[in-house]
Amino acid sequence: MNYKIHWTANAYSDFSQTVLFIKERWGRETATDFINRVDTVINVVSIFPQLGKIIHPQKQIRALIFSKQTTLVYRIKSDSIIILNLFDNRQDPDKLKVNEKISTYQV
Length: 107
Hints:
Blueprint: E1 4-8, H1 9-26, H2 28-47, E2 53-56, E3 61-65, E4 70-77, E5 80-88, E6 104-106
Parallel strand pairs: 1-5
Antiparallel strand pairs: 1-6, 2-3, 3-4, 4-5
């Protein structure tokens, strides 16, 4: 079963900003590669939602490191995967704040 994918507004905004930064710094091809990697990992998680390590047991929030620089942070809710954050691993891990707003984007 493939789970439906939803993005929180903050996660989608962060993703868009990251893509723009990569495009400006390293070019369109590198930005496209990043988008493809994110798409691939999200597709895998939609099939195998338990893949990520639980980082917040009470809220069942999971994290999956998919590149040296990026961790996908998500939550499983019934038949959906809620993308909470794409965390830059070069940051202080204490900065990871998960904000799950009601408004989400379906991709």
